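Re: the request from the purification team.
They wanted to know what the chain is likely to look like in 3D before they choose a buffer screen. I agreed to run a prediction and write the result into the notebook, where they can find it.
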Amino acid sequence: MGAAADFRLFWDNAYAVHDLTGTSDRLDNVLDACAAAGNPDRALVFGSTSKITFAQAGLGMLATSAANMRWFVSRQSTRTIGPDKLNQLRHVLVLGDDAGIAAHMEQQRRLLESKFAAVQDVFKARLGGTGVAAWTHPRGGYFVSLDVLDACAQRVVALAKAAGIEMVPAGRTFPYGRDPRDRNIRIAPSFPPADEVRAAVDALATCVLVATSERLLADRGVNA
């Protein structure tokens, strides 16, 4: 069975400049790749300054082919009389240019660096080598993805909530929020101070171990 000839790629490139290390990773240009493959209208790439300036108060962006852009503008023009020019001016005055964006995001990186390091340190110390969990080591963005044993993620989140730790619902990154294996948890350590992140992740690791123990005992027919 072949792929449909008319599908579109919708890419929410939300973290294009959100580095967590001193070195930026550079991705190939998906629009150039689509054009080179003979499908210039295949991709629509979305971005915003939501996590650069103010959440839900930034500027939205669209990158796509000239034909797709003409289609979008022709329809968008009937929905609004124009963009928020005052907000556009605010961003231009604050960020200025590519160098201004880079300088601004370097400040954000410095704020986030210790928080993400705390997550990695605690997971390595508490869960490393146990075989009950695996997690990502992101070089950018705002999240760490934690995978626990199958059928344990919702229990981990429930245990964490009972301990006073508010987590993103298990499986949030899956369509309709339904993780068929109930194993993925997305961790967002960007808001609390680093010491609070460390304490919360330490407690979360305990929740992972408790939920895992319960599952393994249940599989063996043992009541915890």
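For the purification team: DSSP finds six helices and six strands in the chain.
Please add any questions underneath this entry.
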